[in-house]
């Protein structure tokens, strides 16, 4: 069973209503605004989120700069870092959509 989603950039994305996903399905979920995680990660409460806009707390983005989307990871110690997939992550079939039952306080990112 699948659920169809449509966004401004992607149409008819099929997200299976199953507990575990492959990376392609997890990436589709990220593009729809979901947080995803892997069972194979050692840290608890770690997840990924697609970042699509510049945060005001990072300062003003110069007009001639284009902010491209990137993947951020919330680490086990409540930090946020840019994330790159390993080959193991890309081939894993233990991805899942993170369901948050209570509102989480988003970690603040500051430049020093």
**Helix and strand succession?**
EEHEEEEHE
Which regions are unreliable across 5 or more consecutive residues at pLDDT < 50?
Answer: 1-13
Overall tally of domains:
1
Share of helical residues: 10-25%
* Rg value: 15 Å
Distance, first to last CA? 47 Å
Structural class: alpha+beta
Q: Please tally the β strands and state the result.
A: 7
Number of helices: 2
Shape field: globular
Question: Which strand-content bin applies to the residues?
Answer: 15-25%
Question: Residue-averaged pLDDT, rounded?
Answer: 80
* Major β-sheet profile: 3 strands, antiparallel
**What strand order characterises the main sheet?**
4-5-6
List its salient traits.
112 residues; alpha+beta; two-stranded antiparallel sheet; globular
């Amino acid at each position: 069973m699948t659920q169809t989603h449509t966004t401004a950039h992607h149409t008819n994305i099929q997200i299976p209503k199953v507990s575990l996903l492959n990376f392609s399905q997890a990436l589709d979920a990220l593009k729809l605004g979901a947080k995803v995680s892997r069972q194979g990660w050692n840290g608890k409460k770690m997840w990924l989120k697609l970042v699509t806009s510049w945060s005001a707390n990072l300062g003003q983005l110069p007009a001639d700069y284009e902010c491209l989307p990137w993947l951020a990871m919330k680490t086990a110690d409540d930090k946020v870092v840019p994330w790159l997939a390993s080959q193991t992550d890309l081939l894993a079939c233990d991805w899942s959509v993170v369901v948050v039952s209570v509102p989480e306080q988003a970690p603040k990112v500051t430049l020093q």
